[in-house]
Design a protein that fits this description.
By secondary structure, this protein is α+β, with helices and mostly antiparallel strands. Helix content is 63%, strand content 13%. It contains 6 helices and 3 strands; from the N terminus they run H-H-E-H-H-E-E-H-H. Helix 3 packs across helix 4.
Length: 106
């Protein structure tokens, strides 16, 4: 990960709906969640949720799979983790104060 990739990623997450979608999918775990359930959870219309899910999929943060008539979305934990690691270890130079405030042991 580099500065440009991290900035692009954070720019996408700066949208409250996208952040809520990521939170929902993280909580859903590896099983993921149906598009309709995600839309309802974040208070978005299905078309609006689809727009945001597509943007997150373009970043590689979420992936989708068709199950019968539903689209099931999954969070890409590795991709999300790479951004978090970038900030704690690279961008912030592993600063022990920051790491402690995030609950990360040095």
């Amino acid at each position: 990960m580099n500065d440009e990739q991290a900035a692009h990623f954070l720019g996408a997450l700066a949208n409250p709906t996208r952040l809520a979608i990521v939170r929902h999918l993280v909580r859903a775990g590896p099983e993921g969640a149906a598009a309709g359930a995600i839309a309802a959870s974040v208070g978005a219309t299905p078309s609006r949720a689809s727009f945001h899910l597509a943007a997150l999929a373009e970043l590689g943060v979420v992936s989708a799979e068709r199950q019968s008539r539903s689209m099931i979305y999954h969070i890409n934990f590795d991709r999300l983790g790479s951004v978090l690691r970038y900030f704690i270890e690279d961008c912030c130079a592993g600063n022990p104060v920051l790491r402690a405030s995030c609950g990360v042991r040095c």
